[in-house]
Here is the input.
Amino acid sequence: MENIQIRCVQDGDKEFWFSLDKHLAVSEFDKKVRDKQGYVLLKDGQSIGILRYNLFWDNTPFCNLLYIKEGYQRKGYGKKLMNYWESQMQAEGYTWILVSTQSDEDAQHFYRALGYSDCGSLNAPNQPAELFLSKYLR
Here is the structure.
């Protein structure tokens, strides 16, 4: 039986984190550690996935990045990490959460399968539309 653990990101996760996350500045990583706004998923003690978020409008949890290491994708680990994040946000009293993904990425189907609904988009110059999806926590 596999041993899955999800915990808040720590300073010691920096090398692994940046092997998956190519968009975050080091100073922002330090804030994620300080503010506990990131998670690492471990399988049998090995780091295999990350999730980071912030508060959109300073009051709505917004998942900025979910990434599972190659070789572990499409095996349910992303769903486990999202379910964990959702339960943590609900425990903190939030009732509504957001995610986004580019319109040319398959992640939109993943989020919809988890109960997220389309709620808007952003069209930046020379980029695919960014789709926003939301979910009410019960």
